[in-house]
Amino acid sequence: MIDITAPVNNLGYGIASFNIIKALNNMGVPVKYHPIGQPEDLPESEFLQDLIEQRSSIKSLASVKIWHQNDIHHHVGKKLHVGFPIFELDRFNEQEQYSINQNDRIFVCSQWAKQIVLNNSNISDSNIFVVPLGVDTDLFQPFISGRPQTVFFNCGKWEIRKGHDVLIECFNEAFNHDDPVELWMMCENPFYSPEMQQQWTALCKNSKLGNKIRLIPRQMTHAGVYNLMKQVTCGVFPSRAEGWNLELLEVMACGKPVIATNYSAHTEFCNESNCRLIEIEQNEIANDGFWFNGQGSWAHIGDSQKQQLIDHMKIIHTQKQSGVLSQNMDGIETAKKFSWKNSAKKFLEGLE
């Protein structure tokens, strides 16, 4: 028996938690689920109620909490305590360090994250386990869109951290009104006020190519997300930092070319063969005036990185319009390796 404390919803933590719990359940692993907040009614989530009401004579092996790094020290029972935070910056504050240090083991999504825990906690190397997140390849399958335009796509809530400001700027720099291109942004942020949402909308619509930027509402199901992703030409993710980047891996699974910064957690699955990389030369203090106020660092996106992004987009557009753009076969193969079943297996290995 494993006690798992986690949220289940349509946000990052919720999607990761749900899919790990689902994969463990499908493998026949006894799980007792302890919700953080009210679980959302996701497709195929009916089994969760049984796990919440789980009564078993099997002794619990461990308590695992999948949650923010400042609050992973509260656990169920006195067995093995495992914290599973998903974080973006390279340093922890005192509260985060305290919370992490109360655990016997720590699970992280990537080698990048493991090194940060080593540098910022008292947890030893042998007690930090990489448990990569996954993608549902039964849903996110390769698809070649028949749209004549070159459609660039980004998915992820509006944030400076995700490089949305850079993407909008570089899209406008790379193309002209006569170019058959579009930029699709599915970036609603449920934590922002209407006024803050409007600031991002205005940044898009008031730009040179504002009429070529399509703002798409958040999809309530992953099937809705896939129906969008399969229509696009290329995924573009110029992130300053990521805790994993589920959407990037999902676009890969659809066989689309992708562009991303060569920094942070998605380096666990992005490489030169499956992604057009934006090379990072240095970091800078992470400060967006909202979520991050100088606690740690993230990738610096300067003129060199912007030019790399522009060049990558222009190449993708030229190949698309010339009819020579091929599927991202290496991305498809990568997605097969990073299944949720693989995540569950790594999860169990970390409890041995």
Task: Summarize the entry for a quick read.
The chain is of the alpha/beta class and 352 residues long. It has helices at residues 12-26, 48-52, 94-101, 111-120, 164-174, 194-205, 222-229, 246-253, 303-322, 329-337, 340-349; strands spanning 2-6, 31-35, 62-66, 80-84, 105-108, 128-130, 150-155, 181-186, 213-215, 234-237, 258-261, 276-278, 283-287, 293-299.
Structure description:
The structure is a single chain. The chain is of the alpha/beta class and 352 residues long. The protein has 11 helices and 14 strands. The protein has helices at 12-26, 48-52, 94-101, 111-120, 164-174, 194-205, 222-229, 246-253, 303-322, 329-337, 340-349, and strands at residues 2-6, 31-35, 62-66, 80-84, 105-108, 128-130, 150-155, 181-186, 213-215, 234-237, 258-261, 276-278, 283-287, 293-299. The protein has a 6-stranded parallel β-sheet, with helices on both faces. Helix 5 packs across helix 9 (303-322) and helix 8 packs across helix 10 (329-337). The radius of gyration is 20 Å and the shape is globular.
